[in-house]
Amino acid sequence: MNLYEHTIIARQDASPSDLKQLTEKYSKIVEKNNGEIIKTENWGLLNLSYLIKKNKKGSYIHFKIKCDGKAINELEKNESIDKKLLRYLTVRVKKFDLDANYFNKKDDLEKANK
């Protein structure tokens, strides 16, 4: 089994329930293909570097996945036809960094450091 970090960017007008449905939908696809979701992070609504399909912002969802390449192919095939998504990216990694939380607010980071 390989380790992957997978990030999807949903449209800026997606509601929280839409984001939850997207997360569940793609988690089920991974699990159906003998994969395992190690961690799911909702990074929230962030500015995009450039316009993508006339959107200035996007809702980011990040998955840490343990699976084989077949599950990733199935996942990306489904994401490429989903109208709610702007982009997706999969990166194969050697190990997961489960401790760092890069998208916390500054107040949360200061509390964690004390």
Q: How does this structure look, described?
A:
The protein is of the alpha+beta class. The chain has one domain (2-95, 103-113): Alpha-Beta Plaits (2-Layer Sandwich), CATH 3.30.70. Helices cover 32% and strands 43% of the residues. It contains three helices and four strands, in the order βαββαβα. The protein has helices at residues 16-32, 69-80, 106-113; strands at 2-11, 36-52, 55-67, 85-93. The protein has a four-stranded antiparallel β-sheet, with helices on one face. Helix 1 (16-32) packs antiparallel against helix 2. The longest helix has 17 residues, at 16-32. The protein is globular.
Write the layout of secondary structure elements.
Layout lengths: L1 E10 L4 H17 L3 E17 L2 E13 L1 H12 L4 E9 L12 H8 L1
Antiparallel strand pairs: 1-3, 1-4, 2-3
Helix pairs in contact: 1-2
